[in-house]
Specification:
heterodimer; A: 6 helices; 65% helix; elongated; B: 7-stranded antiparallel sheet; rod-shaped
């Protein structure tokens, strides 16, 4: 598991951060529907910068995964995994704060 | 992903990314650039700008200008020719009869002349104009005869001589001038002479012999 995540991180131009390697279990959209809006906003602000970049380009600018990958100089799979990690981290932050 | 999540991402991150954009410093353009731009803006506001912005339009404008210049030139030359032609024709087609001031002759009409061979009943109009001119119109078998009497002093008359015949005749030892405009008996003629006191003329649609006969019968009224 460790080697796999490490291999994936090599596709990104970001610095490797082994502390952020978490299991990429899918977080369902319905989880965020039940969360208070202001708690969600605060949780997004606490995300690492590279996670913020990916979700901002994807959800606000409307870029596809491929376009986000081109914009950031990363592979499509890396962008997809970063997005999943961001959702996972959001869930953790919200559970910790909530 | 739900709209709620998108809105949350937008609200939490937009200001952060906007702050990353460096503020642009205000730029001041040079005077020459501003002058060129203002002239360009004025040009674009002109109603005929759509004609000037394409090569076809510019060519059309140039052709129109050339036509306008040519038409103006031709019009001016035509007007110039007409005006000068009028004055030239007036000078060419008229003869001026003039007698210098003479204090020895009467300054006003004192003796009134009439045609002796015609009766007073033939007289249509007998007109004395300010004592300087006396005109009598007669009816001679349906034709009008005019006898004009002018004071000699300052006499000046413009007589149309365009295509006319001018003859000098002797009238009882006095020199008379005959004018016939169309060289025909049916056209107006005039016989004009100076009897020493007044300038007399007999005119009408008559030939030289008829006018001479009428002129010889001129006499002072009793």
């Amino acid at each position: 598991m460790y080697s796999k995540n490490k291999k994936c991180s090599q596709y990104l131009s970001f610095d490797d951060d082994s502390s952020e390697i978490v299991e990429t279990a899918y977080v369902d959209d319905s989880f965020f529907e039940d969360i208070d809006y202001m708690l969600l906003v605060d949780a997004i602000k606490q995300l690492p910068q590279k996670y913020k970049d990916v979700i901002y380009l994807h959800y606000v600018c409307g870029f596809s995964t491929k376009e986000v990958a081109l914009s950031l100089g990363a592979s499509v799979s890396s962008v997809w995994k970063i997005e999943e990690r961001a959702r996972k981290m959001l869930k953790e932050i919200l559970e910790r704060n909530g | 992903m739900s709209e709620k999540f998108k809105n949350a991402v937008f609200e939490s991150l937009s200001q952060e990314y906007l702050d990353m954009i460096p503020e642009s410093e205000p730029h001041e353009f040079s005077d020459s650039f501003l002058k060129k731009m203002s002239s360009l803006v004025k040009l674009r506001k002109m109603p005929c700008y759509f004609l000037l912005k394409s090569q076809f339009g510019r060519a059309a404008v140039i052709i129109c200008l050339i036509c306008a210049v040519l038409l103006t030139t031709f019009s001016l030359s035509a007007i110039k020719g007409t005006v000068f032609g009028f004055f030239l024709s007036q000078c060419e087609e008229c003869s001026i009869l003039e007698i210098e001031d003479d204090t020895s002759s009467p300054q006003t009409i004192e003796d009134f002349y009439y045609l002796g061979m015609l009766d007073k009943s033939d007289c249509i109009i007998d007109y004395n104009c300010f004592k300087f001119m006396h005109i009598v119109f007669y009816n001679l078998n349906g034709r009008t005869v005019a006898l004009a009497q002018h004071v000699r002093s300052g006499y000046k008359s413009n007589i149309s001589t365009d295509g006319s015949i001018i003859k000098t005749v002797d009238l009882n030892g006095k020199r008379a001038v005959f004018f016939n405009v169309k060289n025909a008996s049916s056209s107006p003629s005039m016989l004009l002479w100076d009897n020493g006191d007044y300038v007399l003329s007999v005119s009408g649609c008559f030939d030289l012999n008829e006018l001479t006969e009428l002129a010889l019968s001129v006499e002072i009224a009793e």
